[in-house]
Every structure is written in structure tokens, then in C-alpha cells.
Design a protein that fits this description.
The protein is an alpha/beta fold. The protein has helices spanning 5-23, 28-31, 35-42, 68-80, 94-99, 114-117, 162-170, 186-192, 203-212, 239-254, 257-265; strands spanning 44-49, 57-58, 65-66, 83-88, 105-110, 120-122, 127-136, 155-158, 177-179, 198-202, 216-219, 227-235, 273-274.
């Protein structure tokens, strides 16, 4: 007895649907091309930055970019024979920009944290930076970590920056002054102008802000509140792009490029902790 044409067609349709679903068990991740493929074909890369001296410096008159991480990405693009197109972002929007495919990498020297790692991926750390704070130079408070729990304390942080994450994680009872800006020194300005008792931010900003403004001082510099790696941030789910960046970092490190960048932008030995080379 032979099958009818309709039953044969139905069987074929079922087999076809089943075979297609089997070929794509991980949905869009299997068919999504890597940023490496895009760069290879289009010879261009979409990069976001947040102004963050000395890692990213923007000339206020010309808009020209410079800095440690800008020059590092330019070196990578020269070796890779592609152009980098930059777009300015904020600390509070940079993760969403990656997830929405507005850009392929954030180059400002981003700190890998557990909350961020739930959404994005990071290249290997290029250096390590601490979390410090700014207070009034005449402050009589004994600035130990337990003092940060004082409910009367006015704490300033920048939205999306690690200072905000620290307050949320370790000082949940506090209601900080949260500033929607890409300028990390803006939190220090709150202390300088008397609107906050303490500003929590990464150590480079704190030390340099205090040097420019003797009415405030940087604290938690010798023993930071936290220590973070600093590196490039990318979308999750692209192992080829991650491997490319990690290989690039290792190449620039072994070829002496990173040493040149450190001598140019690291104004004093303790500004950040450099990665040690295996042959040293």
C-alpha cells in the first residue's frame, strides 16, 4: 500500500522543520557574525569612549582624542589595517550601547565588575586601578571604611561608575548624590562646593583632582576601597573578537608599545598598578 501524496508532503515538511531546528540549537548566536568578520570586510570598527584622563583625553576646542587607551586602539587598528570610528558615551549608557549594537567596543579603560559581567564581556586587564575618595582638606572625620556608614554623610558618585556600584553594594542604607555625567571629577566638585562630604571615584581622578584643588584631599589611596582591572569592554557571545583583543594586548605588551604609553601617560609610579611581564 502506497502513501498518499499529502501524507508524503506532510512527512517531508516535518523532517525539514526538525532538521532546521537541529542545525540552529543556540538560536541567533550561531548565525551572528563576529566583529572580527565585520572589521575584515568593512575595514572599520565602531568604538565608544567616555572622557577619562589620562586614558581618554578630548581637546575641548577641536574635539581631538588622545590618551592611553585611544593610542592603544590606534596601534591595534594600524596593525589590523582598519579604521576606528569613535562615538562619545556616558558611564551609565555604555553597556546599553554595546547591547544595542551601536558600537563594538568601549575603549575608555573600563573596570570589569560582576554586575557589568552579567551583560557584557571584558578583555584581559591591561592595568589595575583603585577606588578612592575626595574629602575636604580640613575634614576632622576619621576616614576609615566604617565612617562611610554614617547616615548623615553626604556621598557623591557618578551614575554607572564603580563608585556608585560600591555604595549600592556595601552602603545600601545610604542615598548618594548621583550625578548623570561622564566627568568623574564632577563628584569631587560636589565636595569642593560644599554640597557633599565625600566623593567616591576611581583613584586616578581623585588624586589628580586633589592636586588641582588644594581645598580637598584624596583618601583611600594607599589602601583603596576596591581594586579593579582596567581594559576594553565588548558584547558577550563573540569569542573571536575577545581572542583578537587579548592577542592584541599581549602583542603590544611584548613589543614595547605599552611601555611607551606608560612612560607618556603615567605621570607618577603609583597612579596605577602595571601588569608585570613574565620575563621580568
Amino acid at each position: 500500500m502506497t502513501k498518499s501524496k499529502s501524507s508524503v508532503a506532510l512527512t517531508c515538511a516535518i523532517v525539514l522543520v526538525f532538521s532546521v531546528s537541529c542545525q540552529d540549537p543556540t538560536s541567533s548566536k550561531t548565525i551572528t557574525k563576529s566583529v572580527v568578520d565585520k572589521v575584515r570586510v568593512q575595514k572599520s570598527l565602531a568604538a565608544a569612549y567616555v572622557v577619562y584622563p589620562p586614558f581618554v583625553i578630548k581637546d575641548p576646542s577641536t574635539g581631538q582624542l588622545s590618551g592611553y587607551f585611544i593610542e592603544m586602539m590606534e596601534e591595534i587598528s594600524k596593525y589590523g589595517d582598519f579604521k576606528v570610528n569613535y562615538e562619545e558615551a556616558k558611564w551609565g549608557t555604555m553597556v546599553a550601547g554595546l547591547e544595542q549594537n551601536r558600537y563594538d567596543v568601549v575603549v575608555s579603560g573600563i573596570f570589569p565588575t560582576i554586575p557589568r559581567a552579567l551583560s557584557v564581556t571584558f578583555a584581559k586587564p591591561i592595568m589595575y586601578v583603585g577606588l578612592s575618595a575626595i574629602v575636604d582638606a580640613k575634614s576632622q572625620i576619621n576616614w576609615v571604611t566604617s565612617a562611610l556608614s554614617d547616615p548623615k554623610l553626604r556621598i557623591a558618585v557618578v551614575n554607572g561608575e564603580v563608585g556608585q556600584e560600591y555604595v549600592k553594594r556595601f552602603l545600601p542604607a545610604q542615598k548618594p548624590i548621583s550625578l548623570d555625567t561622564s566627568d568623574l571629577s564632577r563628584a569631587g566638585l560636589e565636595v569642593l562646593q560644599g554640597r557633599a562630604d565625600i566623593a567616591i571615584a576611581e583613584s586616578i581622578t581623585c588624586v589628580e583632582f586633589a592636586q588641582r584643588n588644594p581645598k580637598v584631599k584624596a583618601i583611600f589611596t594607599e589602601i583603596p576601597l576596591q581594586v579593579y582591572g582596567s581594559t576594553f569592554m565588548i558584547r558577550s557571545g563573540d569569542p573571536d573578537w575577545l581572542a583578537f583583543l587579548n592577542t592584541s594586548i599581549e602583542f603590544l605588551e611584548s613589543s614595547g608599545v605599552i611601555d611607551k604609553l606608560e612612560s607618556k601617560y603615567k605621570s607618577r609610579p603609583g597612579l596605577w598598578l602595571s601588569r608585570s611581564k613574565p620575563w621580568q
